[in-house]
């Protein structure tokens, strides 16, 4: 199968949206942004063995490749307008490609985003490059630099699931023996199939001050907001929202209690808002702390003591994953 047959078979799909005039099949896609929108662009690289375990199912890789980019749009309150896909493949395996395309296109259809172009090459290592384009009204774009002293800090969903799921793959001996198999499967699923919080981001664009998606760990990603806004924060470790599976793991092994602060791949939205706007949240979210004028991040445990975080989050140039 040559490159063009591969594209036609797995990735060329009819696409009809007001913003896409021409998609896959020409030298360039043609988009027509709405007259009252600004264009937002984000690119992510995913490398096998670095961003997802080597034994990850192709459907899950396809889902995650798109989901992590849609999450960036969600963090800025934008709506997706189109996506491009670059694939570097060790081989053109029809079964793998069919599974990958199914996972990718299923999520794209769920959020109404069209694949509008990309490229494929042969490579010794499986690598994906996804670029997503979004639209938003100029006065409704969420940024990292607008947190204010007195703001509440809140987060969607639950934290730490993906980090624990990664441990089930990379460090199976670290999993408590008493942890049910269903919990392990749930946590692995949260690693492989994150949910982009696009609807929540578009709601937050109406009143939240600052936002970011939790990709490299809550503590590290909150640090980006603090640095950009010139403020500090205090977080209550006991307030972090945890899934039932994560709670059972932490109850069996309290030594990993800070993992929900430092593990990446959650792709939940972390945001700040004025206390008086808390009632405007019409989706599940948990307040975990507050913004203060003094610089730095303070994390307190149940006893009110400051917690020392040995590692703040994921670093692509650190020596291997946890």
Automatic annotation (TrEMBL):
One of its GO terms (molecular function) is thiamine-phosphate kinase activity. It comes from the Bacteria. Residues 148-297 form the PurM-like C-terminal domain. Keywords: ATP-binding, Kinase, Magnesium, Metal-binding, Nucleotide-binding, Thiamine biosynthesis, Transferase. Mg(2+) 5 binds at residue 216. Transmembrane segments: none annotated. GO terms for biological process: thiamine biosynthetic process; thiamine diphosphate biosynthetic process. Pathway: Cofactor biosynthesis; thiamine diphosphate biosynthesis; thiamine diphosphate from thiamine phosphate: step 1/1. ATP binds at residues 118-119, 144, 215. Residues 25-134 form the PurM-like N-terminal domain. Mg(2+) 2 binds at residues 44, 72. Pfam families: AIRS, AIRS_C. Mg(2+) 3 binds at residues 27, 72, 213. It catalyses: thiamine phosphate + ATP = thiamine diphosphate + ADP. Mg(2+) 1 binds at residues 43-44, 119. Belongs to the thiamine-monophosphate kinase family. Catalyzes the ATP-dependent phosphorylation of thiamine-monophosphate (TMP) to form thiamine-pyrophosphate (TPP), the active form of vitamin B1. Reaction mechanism of ThiL seems to utilize a direct, inline transfer of the gamma-phosphate of ATP to TMP rather than a phosphorylated enzyme intermediate. This is Thiamine-monophosphate kinase. It comes from Halothiobacillus diazotrophicus. The gene is thiL.
């Amino acid at each position: 199968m040559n490159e063009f047959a591969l594209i036609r078979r797995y990735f060329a799909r009819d696409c009809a949206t007001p913003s896409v005039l021409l998609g896959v099949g020409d030298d360039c896609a043609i988009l027509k942004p709405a007259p009252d929108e600004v264009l937002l662009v984000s690119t992510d690289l995913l490398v096998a063995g670095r961003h997802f375990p080597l034994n990850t199912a192709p459907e899950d890789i396809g889902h995650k490749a798109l989901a992590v980019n849609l999450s960036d749009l969600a963090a800025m309150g934008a709506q997706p307008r189109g996506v491009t896909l670059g694939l570097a493949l060790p081989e053109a395996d029809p079964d793998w490609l069919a599974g990958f395309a199914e996972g990718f296109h299923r999520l794209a259809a769920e959020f109404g985003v069209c694949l509008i172009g990309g490229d494929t090459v042969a490579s010794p290592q499986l690598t994906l490059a996804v670029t997503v384009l979004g639209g938003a009204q100029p006065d409704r774009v969420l940024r990292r630099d607008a947190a204010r002293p007195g703001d509440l800090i809140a987060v969607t969903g639950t934290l730490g699931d993906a980090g624990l799921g990664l441990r089930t793959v990379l460090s199976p001996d670290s999993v408590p023996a008493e942890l049910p198999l269903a919990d392990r499967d749930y946590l692995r699923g949260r690693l492989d199939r994150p949910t982009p919080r696009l609807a929540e981001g578009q709601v937050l664009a109406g009143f939240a001050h600052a936002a970011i998606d939790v990709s490299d760990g809550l503590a590290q990603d909150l640090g980006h907001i603090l640095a950009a806004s010139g403020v500090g924060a205090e977080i209550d470790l006991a307030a972090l929202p945890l899934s039932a599976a994560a709670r059972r793991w932490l109850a069996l092994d309290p030594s990993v209690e800070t993992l929900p602060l430092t593990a990446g791949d959650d792709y939940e939205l972390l945001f700040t808002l004025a206390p008086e706007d808390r009632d405007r949240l019409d989706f599940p979210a948990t307040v975990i702390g507050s913004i203060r004028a003094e610089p730095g991040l303070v994390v307190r445990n149940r006893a009110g003591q400051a917690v020392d975080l040995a590692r703040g989050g994921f670093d692509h140039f650190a020596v291997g994953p946890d």
